[in-house]
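Please go through the sequence and fold tokens given here and tell me how the chain folds. Record follows.
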Amino acid sequence: MSYAAFGGPEVLRLVDAEKPHAGPGEIRIAVRAAGVNPVDWRIREGQMRPALPASLPAGVGLDAAGVVDEVGEGVTDVAPGDRVFGEGADTYAEFAVLHAWARMPEGLSFEEAAGYPSVMETALRILGECGVRPGQTLLVSGASGGVGSAVLQIARDRGITVVGTAGAANLEYLRGLGAHATTYAEGWPERVRAFTSVDAALDLAGAGVVRELVELTGDPATVVSIADRTAPELGVRFSNVAGSVPDALKETVRLLEQGTLHIPVEKVYSLTEAAAAHADSRAGHTRGRRVIVV
């Protein structure tokens, strides 16, 4: 999957390309599924320039799960035939090169595995950046998507109380993940206050709520946004620089194996439906994750 100009989903084209090759410290996989993340369509629209400059034409996708097909120089922890998931480049494809990976736990499908890498890296990063600690309360605005689902479950594992906002249809889903839940309809700050005081907050949806989050926590240093680029105007951190993906994958495997992490796959698309996957992701209101099967 490729695009030759920045723009909407219609710029995506399925093209023939030569197989990439694994360089030193990399692996190539036969892709079975690729994760669909907001960063994918933000890059395609040109929103991420100059932080992530792209030469055109460019491929699409960061996350994938599949079978190791080729190992680069210095790679000793996996071999051809192993089932892995991880992060790389141009993963909406039959073959892709990964620079970070982990073996897939037993019982995990390729579709499930493909959606975890970027979601878990982001969730772990922003939990660290907002400074929330065990015994404290975290407010998550836009909590039902992939990152929000991961945040809620990691927080629960760490002994952090979570209040999440989402659409009315997703409130029971949030409660099932252990969160207090309310809609983001008018009056939501008062409903949050009725639950508890808030120590830290995350803005995952970019719904123009940063000011209210600061008012609820009382300190902009305890608020982090991954979706509102105007957040720094209020003293709030806008987080868009990835942390350690290998560490995130290691923690993902730990939580999966102990049975305390599960993020549902809301919808599966074929590679030819990548444009629809991007359009649906951009529309929001996701419960869990979206993935492309190859």
User: Anything to note?
Assistant: The longest strand covers residues 27-36. DSSP finds nine helices and 14 strands in the chain. Residues 86 and 101 are 4 Å apart (CA to CA).
